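Need Cytochrome c oxidase subunit 5A, mitochondrial's 3D structure for a figure. Predict it.
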Amino acid sequence: MHFLFQTRDAIPDPNIITAVLKACRHQNDFPLALRFLETVQLKCGPHKKVVWPWLVQQIKPTLDDLGVPTPEEIGYDKPELYLEDVMDMLTAASHHYCCFALSVSENHRSSLHRLRSGTAGKADLCAPRL
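Structure prediction for Cytochrome c oxidase subunit 5A, mitochondrial:
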């Protein structure tokens, strides 16, 4: 049934959605109920902003009665592993690298200055190089 539902370009009637949710509850299959709601939401397609709120309004009493949350209520509408834009990551990485390189080069310059002036201690000579 799930395969047939996904291959058709039809949004089910709220009565059908209610019947499927009750069947899922009868089987104690909470994940299937959520997956079904996600599939209905995907079936709304480009009209999601208009159709999905109407469907939720129609099936909300059944959802409350069965204790099934909507995908938005449990955070399924936001991606779990959201990644930043690649350019933002590159900018941040290059900024951190530049700051690290500047701090290393400042430490290196001061150590070289102390070595040349003869004021370098044992710690300057044995310091690990980065």
